[in-house]
Amino acid sequence: MNILVLIKPTPDITKVRFDVEKGVVDRGSASLEINPFDLYAIEVAKRIKRVFGGFITSLSMAPPHAEPALRDAIARGVDRAILLSDRRFAGADTWATSYTLASAIRKLGSFNIILCGEKSVDGDTAHVGPEVAEFLGIPHVSFVTRIIDVSVDKVIVESDFGEAYYEVELKLPALIALSRPVIFRDEFIEPSMPKVSDVLRAKKAKIDVWSADQLADVADVSKFGLNGSPTRVVRAYYALEKGRETRVVKGEEGVNMILSVLRETGVIS
Ligand SMILES: Cc1cc2nc3c(=O)[nH]c(=O)nc-3n(C[C@H](O)[C@H](O)[C@H](O)COP(=O)(O)OP(=O)(O)OC[C@H]3O[C@@H](n4cnc5c(N)ncnc54)[C@H](O)[C@@H]3O)c2cc1C
Questions:
Q1: N or C: which end of the chain has fewer CB within 10 A?
Q2: pLDDT tens across 112-167, in order?
Q3: Residue 21 CA to ligand 1 centre (angstroms)
């Protein structure tokens, strides 16, 4: 099986800061790591490879400092990691991101199955998986909580739509966007920590970095990045509940405020 995993390098959400003035995530404030949902996609890819044999390619669009996240993917079992990195990709909305990823997939050739996370922990739109599949003209299903069965030409999955579960059969090639936790056949899957030997092997592995020019034979480069994005963020602001005031309180003042609330509510005396 030729398996492709979409991996978004996302900031460590325990460390990342928000630029309150500009209303954007300060992406330089934390290192990039594999989006937690995508860790499950890697694990499912490994299970499929274990059953059918094959090759796992990962594809990411991110700035150059995402490279350690891709090495982590290799340590966890990805056979080849490709990073799309170029200033001309910057500022892409989800449409332009998906167009770029789909173009790179077309350049790479054909895949039996494409796996991705249901959503990212930073952008959180859940757009990219379905959009990539639409660009490629292949079937797709999101919010997948279980791979019931997979064979060489089809996959049967369970998808959680909140109020109902759907059992969906898709002809391969197809794209599956995974929730977490996820069950592969009857096994509950948790991302496993890579072994030290795999981490060391991954340190020496080659990461293929592709620029916009390298996709020029399969894509319209004017559709990349901010210029190719049909949407614009025109304003970012905190949602305030009516009648409530939001204030950022730091240090000792913040600690004292928490203590006084805990005292007032009787949690501590
Ligand atoms: C107008 C506009 C401008 C923007 N400008 C910037 C900017 O300058 N810099 C910036 O960092 N972001 C920018 N963004 C955000 C950027 O568009 C999203 O981060 C990106 O499209 C992915 O969307 P998401 O995080 O919601 O992914 P989701 O759709 O929630 O992710 C679902 C899954 O898709 C896959 N996936 C998602 N993104 C990638 C990726 N890049 N590579 C590989 N797989 C992926 C992963 O498997 C992931 O689990 C901008 C957005 C808009 C609307």
A1: C
A2: 999 999 999 998 999 999 999 999 999 999 999 999 999 999 999 999 988 899 99
A3: 22
Is position 255 within any domain?
no
Which parts of 67-204 are beta strand (E)?
80-84, 113-117, 140-150, 154-160, 165-171, 174-184, 187-189
Ligand 1: list residues with CB < 6 Å: 6-8, 35, 37-38, 59-62, 90-94, 97, 101, 116-117, 119-120, 122-129, 229, 231-233
DSSP conformation class of 12: -
Tens of pLDDT, residue by residue over 22-37, are 656 777 778 899 999 9
Give the number of domains in the chain: 1
- Cβ atoms of residues 139 and 152 within 8 Å: no
Residue 42 lies in a domain: yes
DSSP string, 154-175: EEEEEEE-SS-EEEEEEESSEE
Closest ligand 1 atom to 41 CA: 47
What residue owns the CA closest to ligand 1's atom 10?
91
pLDDT tens string 217-256: 999 999 999 999 999 888 777 666 666 677 788 889 999 9
Please tell me the pTM assigned to this model: 0.89
Going by CA atoms, what residue is nearest to atom 43 of ligand 1? 60
Query: Looking at the domain assignment, is residue 257 inside a domain?
Result: no
Is 250 part of a structural domain of the chain? no
